[in-house]
Amino acid sequence: MQTYDYIVVGAGSAGAAVANRLSADPRNKVLLLEAGPAGYHWTHVPIGFAKMIANPAVNWLYSSEPEASTGGRRIPVPRGRILGGSSAINGLAFVRGQKQDFDTWAQMGNQGWSYADVLPFFKRMERWEGPGGDREFRGGEGPLRITNPAPATPLLQAILQAAQQVGIRHNPDYNGAEQDGIAMSQASIAGGRRQSTAACYLDSTVRKRPNLHIETGALTERLLIEGTRCVGVRYSVGATSQEARCGREVVVSAGAINSPQLLELSGIGQADRLRELGVEVVQALPGVGENLRDHYAPRTRWAIGKRGATYNDSGHGIGLVGHALRYALGQPSLLNMVAAPMRAFVKSREGLEAPDLLLGWVPMLMEQTPKGPKLSRESGMTCYAHPMRPESKGSIHIKAADARQAPAIRFNFLSSPIDAELTVRAIRIAQAVMNAPALAPFHVSEMAPGPKAQTDDEVLGWVRAFGETTYHPVGTCKMGSDPMAVVDARLRVHGIAGLRVADASIMPTLTSGNTNAPSIMIGEKCAAMVLEDAA
Questions:
Q1: Is the preceding omega at residue 449 within 30 degrees of 0, hence cis?
Q2: Are 302 and 440 in contact (CB under 8 A)?
Q3: Is pLDDT at 141 greater than 80 in this prediction?
Q4: pLDDT at residue 132, as a whole number
Q5: Distance between CA atoms of 494 and 350, rounded to whole angstroms?
């Protein structure tokens, strides 16, 4: 048995940041556990997300339980199982969220989580390499390189114009003073390579720190708790079970799926549920696994009649060779594209203080296959559209006292009437943009939801039958002081000393956009609080 000062469970978006900052002090002996491998060849190439979205080598490949809101379908829930976690397999869009997201957390009683409180951590983590950028809001010396690609194709340029024709302004920096508007997606891509937390927070210099031990292929099975204090973890590497003890704290950064799973396997959660599964109750916390939220995002599909306008026309055969050559030369290419290279943050109605809907454009059509998404032979594009702060809440709970068995994921999408209303409104705005005059030369025609879905109820029927998520699960170990809170404002698990949770599971509500950037911020802030408390 080894003894450390700190043990971090999960080397993903937040966990890699925690381990980096804690081990920066050579006096701190840190163990970082990751269930997946140390790396994978496709993780470095941005378009590699298409090769990893359904790849068991680097992906937990979870799926939700069948529900009425999803037409009885199981919805895929990909999660990174690799050094860097989901930051190593995601679509690379960099979105902090808006000021109101974090001010709301603070207003809910979470002292220290207002926008003014978290902005320094957002700035600390990034090295902004885009044009302009207000230094009041953007960081220049952090480990994470962030770029701002230009609209590289005439189709994307036309969408930018079309959005403005229907009243959506151009906003060159949605991570700056205001989020409202349309822009190219800022990206965790630099030099043609993915900027995952594995690459940026656990680079070769960090990995060589003598006081940091990184154990990959290590599945954490349970937390070791003596009395009301967490003193270590039990994990397995292959068939070998091991234990590690810590003198100070364990930080669980296993993500919105695995963090509540690990707490429940360790006896922390809903007492009756745990007893039924034969798990000894250590601390009754009814909120563990509850408050699950995600972005339920239908993908509207559009045929493009103008040949050569989309990647469907140039992404096969000799055209793909051209993309590879441009990628090698550092030029815009299919291979270094963000999953949705253009996005708009819009208001559902006049009078709102901040946008509440998100639209994202992908200049191609994909087909789903058992091996993952495949570039369609039909020329077209996709636009997903959804509310950013849904009220519908679901749950994640273990089905057995076995870390190798996937938990039950129930999203309960569209259970809140406002979510259904705003989803339809987002789709209507997407339709308005795609039918605007600037796109007329591209001969755009709607494929889905299509002419058979005219009324709001018909559109919602299509959403239930075909909607997907944007892979942003949060909230299952929520921060707060109410009876359903799991951690306090310093991310300490209620009732258990020496144990914190730091990842997207602590979010009381969803942030406005992609969740990778705020997850890294949470890791940064957690590490700072751990070091403050130790001092």
A1: yes
A2: no
A3: yes
A4: 72
A5: 41
**Beta strands of 199-298 (E only): which ranges?**
212-216, 218-226, 229-237, 240-252, 268-269, 283-284, 296-297
Question: What mean pLDDT value characterizes the chain?
Answer: 96
CA angle (524 as vertex; 489, 286 as ends), nearest 5: 35
Distance in angstroms (rounded) separating the CA atoms of residues 368 and 301: 14
Burial 67-81 (b: 16+ CB within 10 A, else e): bebbeebebbbbbbb
- Whether the CB-CB separation of 243 and 491 falls below 8 Å is answered with no
pLDDT for 363:
94
The reply to whether the predicted model has a pTM over 0.90 is: yes
Query: Alpha helices of 12-153 — where are they, by DSSP H?
Result: 13-23, 49-52, 99-107, 115-125
| Alpha carbon distance 113, 49 (integer Å) | 31
Place of tokens 């039958």: 465
Please give the Cα distance from 178 to 143 (Å, whole number): 24
Closest among 517, 532, 478, 471 to 17, alpha carbons compared: 517
Active-site residues, by number, are 472
pLDDT in tens, 478-527: 999 999 999 999 999 999 999 999 999 999 999 999 999 999 999 999 99
Please list the alpha-helical segments (H only) found in 208-282. 255-265, 271-276
Taking the alpha carbons of 63, 65, 68, 69 in that order, is the dihedral positive or negative? negative
| Residue carrying structure tokens 């989901």 | 86
What is the C-alpha to C-alpha distance for residues 500 and 488, in angstroms, rounded to an integer? 9
Interatomic CA distance for residues 222 and 500, integer angstroms: 14
Distance CA 336, CA 331 (A): 9
CA distance linking residue 158 with residue 455, whole number of Å: 28
466: number of Cβ within 10 Å: 16
Residue 446: beta bridge partners? 302
Please name the helix (run of DSSP H) or strand (run of DSSP E) that holds residue 152, with its range, or none.
none
**Residue whose pair of structure tokens reads 């810590």 in the numeric block:** 246
